[in-house]
Structures
1.
Amino acid sequence: MTTVTYNIPGINCGHCEHTIKMEVGDLEGVQSVEASSESKTATVAFDAPATEQGIKDLLAEINYPAVN
Ligand SMILES: [Cu+2]
């Protein structure tokens, strides 16, 4: 299991948190997603076939691009 914390300036409210949790949580291999509008981060725990870059690509697709 790998855990990555993404810095996402666009997380502004509970709706953003919910969207990220649902969309990233649907990716095969993703075990858990935490998203915080306070810290502007999303922490994702995953196994294969999910990858750090694949999750980052999805975040960009749903208009929550990560800056790290
Ligand atoms: Cu929002």
2.
Amino acid sequence: MNVLTRAPARAGIPDEEWQIRCDLAALYRLLAHFRMTDLIYTHLSARIPGPEHHFLINRYGTFFHEMRASDLVKIDLDGKIVDPVERESRRVNAAGFVIHSAIYMARPDLLSVIHTHTAAGIGVSAQKEGLLPISQHALKFYDRLGYHNYEGIAFDRAERARLIRDLGPHKAMILRNHGLLVGGRSISDTFDQIYFLERACQAQVAALAGGQELVLPPKKVRRHTASQFSDESDSDLIELAWQASLRLIERDQPDYRS
Ligand SMILES: [Zn+2]
């Protein structure tokens, strides 16, 4: 729960679901703010707690910068829109469903998922060595990053088993020749993951563009830094950064809560 996104629940929507809708709509706005969008493509989602295994995903065709809590569509693990009225009037991204549902089915610890197609993310995804340990941002993912080979646009549900296998125990994965995929224990944790992974990719593209020999920290320092990021005390900072980020949109874009 956070104070800034608290809003009166809409008729027929439980308080808990409305809060998740507000936070997820805020997440879409923040990805737009930080220029991690690709027209109407790519998708962010959040799990709705409960035995039904429902989750919220964007209404296909809505820009990230205009996403509202009421634009989010509730679907089940078969990709079916739960609300029969919405089923007639709304679309969701089929490939988005395959990628996100794979993670929700296999990883009950992850409550939210982000998938992006940024230039830096795609660029690193096409580089054979993957994410290089050349920046503090990248070291957050040292030995904590999966890689999944490209199989075409993810319409095939059979790909879910391979996505799960390749993610392993991690929260972040590079989709080769495609983009980035992260999950989190909360919406704020998921935002933290994509922010750092995107910045790490941007730094790598910039460093390689310089054409100079790179300096890599020793393995002992890489492991030490990764463990510093994994420290539980990190969660306080993640929440602090989330609350600060919400203030970026709260003043000028309060309609995300509608
Ligand atoms: Zn994609």
